[in-house]
Design goal:
Blueprint (H helix, E strand, L loop, with lengths): L1 E3 H6 L1 E2 L5 H11 L2 E7 L5 E6 L5 H4 L2 H11 L3 E2 L18 E3 L6 E9 L7 H9 L7 H13 L3 E5 L7 E5 L4 E4 L5 E4 L4 E4 L4 E4 L3 E2 L11 E8 L2 H11 L4 H6 L8 H15 L2 E10 L9 E5 H8 L5 H10 L3 E5 L2 E5 L10 H12 L9 E4 L2 E4 L1 H15 L3 E2 L5 E2 L4 E2 L10 E2 L4 H13 L1 H4 L4 E10 L11 H12 L23 E10 L6 H14 L5 H7 E4 L3 E5 L36 E10 L4 H11 L4 E12 L2 E10 L8 H17 L3 E2 L1
Parallel strand pairs: 6-9, 22-26
Antiparallel strand pairs: 1-4, 2-5, 3-4, 7-15, 7-16, 8-15, 9-12, 10-11, 12-13, 13-14, 17-19, 18-19, 20-21, 23-25, 24-25, 26-27, 27-29, 28-29, 30-32, 30-33, 31-32
Helix pairs in contact: 5-6, 6-9, 10-12, 19-20
Length: 678
Amino acid sequence: MKTTHNTLQSMIQGTLPDPQKLAALIDAHSFEVEESLDLPNGDTQYDIAVLPDRASDCLCSYGIAREVAALCDLELLPVPRSEIAVDEQIEIVPVVIEPGAARRYMARRVQLSQSVGQDAQLSHIVESYGQRSINAVVDASNVVMFHWGQPTHAFDADKIVGGITVRKCGIQTDFLALDGNTYTLLPDDIVIADDEKILAIAGVKGGLSCAVTSETKNLVLEVANFYPALVRKTARRLNLITDAAKRYENNFSDVDADVWMEYFTGLLVSHIGVRAGSVTDIWQDTTAQTLQTLILSNTLIEKIMGKSFSDTEVQKILSDRGFSAVHNNDDWSVTISHFRRDIDCAEAIVDEIARHYGYQMGSSDWSVTIGGERKKVTLYKLSRYCALSLIERGYQESITYSFTETGDVYVAGSVAEDKSALRNTLAGLFESSLQKNYHNRDVLGVTSIRQFEIGAVFTKDVNTGQNLPFQDLQNSAYASDRLRFLQGQVLPEVHKNAMLTRQGEDVRLIVGILAAKQKGVKDELFKIVSDMLYECGLTEIAIRESVVNHTDAYIELSLSTIVDKCTRIPEVALSNDGEIATVQPFKSWSMYPSISRDISVWVPEAVSNSDLESIYIQNGGEYFLKVFLIDEFSREGRTSYAHRLVFQSQERTLSDDDVAPSIDAITAQLIGAGYEVR
């Protein structure tokens, strides 16, 4: 979802932080900001990755603005309302909806006072979303969708015969769309039709037969809400994933359709000049009018978050996000806004509170009640300490799936055959990751791979021997997987059985090394883990008892079994200040293998490694990726440097012939400088 800083500012009362700070704020509390782009006009465009759970309300600038206003403690401005003067002389549009074809369908006829051309202001808005300006009518329609989240459409009214019917296609037929392509429709596809022909594929694409042109004199405006599954089915089959279809399939609310019809009409009145007739509004499925109310307790908030919040804090957080909350003793009666289709349980409301404060909130204050006694949650601190300690020792963190093909705990309705169970060990996927990274060691610029992972595994209940109920695993799996993030992004869930992990759930640490020579690695791994855990007051016996897997490539141990034996957690696990490392922009790896060449050269002692690397970089050619030193020694006033040069393409697998010119050019430069290539 693309939006701009100025667009968000126009929807909020009060001054927003500067673009860099705002992007960081959104990234930490709401959505991933994939890119911030400075525009020539001084504005900043944000490309925000809105996940499916929030696509119903945040695939538009106003949804993002609602989040931003809450995070910045600013006021979200109401949607501008347009008072449209209705011309009773303009014919009303007859509309019929077949049962199950649409939730709601609104239509209005308008008369244009001038020919349809470009409007500079509307063009500018549309282009700020990365879209191409078409004409003032189409641009106004897109403004409604990208600004407010409601797809709309405009037909040339003079090309419509009779009234409008929302129905099944009924037969297999070809349809010529606005993009000039012909699509084959099936009998069950939902279409918009007049008395003679199909006008549009409902929620997906309009037809060329009633397209708006510079000759158009009258329009029929459409504001509708179609069933998500039906739109998705047709759009996916036709491979026609339009911006409108993306919003319809994510189930946005139909409650404000009348607001968007007035807004759409108002844009045309102010930018083109139109006279508007009355609106036909057929609301067939009014389910969304009934708002859902959930009961949320302060006890549940404290149980999940690990700390309590004042009633004032909870009230403000919820109201800022559009919820209506009434407090009664320990409970909150929370009425869910019609646009928040993702909220279906009390735990989801708690997640709103967690996002507001950020998962980096003061971990040193987190505690739980066990047997009536307050105790610190040390499992989180122990996990974070281990992660930071290993990073300081040069290890990289890996993240693998919690779902596997086989295990002790199976889930109903698995998404894929190879993900039908929850893992009962970290070793399987971790070892595979270790091997894949070793295969790419040249691309990574290393000679060995050192990595670790912290995560939950799931086994049968040690007391009953039975599989754990899936509903008991959902929040647990979510929380435990978040343990692997290093900056305190989530608190491990505190479970009702008064343990720090559920029966059958075990938080583990696995550390691995893969190198050309594995001799001695097994002993090295145990020493690394032992030295790290000695600092927590653990004995060698306790550490050895926690080990569940130990091979020549990795050691896996249970943190859950040793957490109660820790007498201290070093301060490194408690600090939330500062960054762990400089964050570099992510660059996708090539799907094609790299090719490496080693080169050794004798140089005078005054010549440094960086001098040689500069020659390699400057003469490496278009496929050159990186260079790193693999050997160095000096003798008789000269130094021998051995480097590995790595080449890779984003488009194809390279051959010897592809890199030979680069090697020849580098060799020529070295010889020309008076160096001896070995």
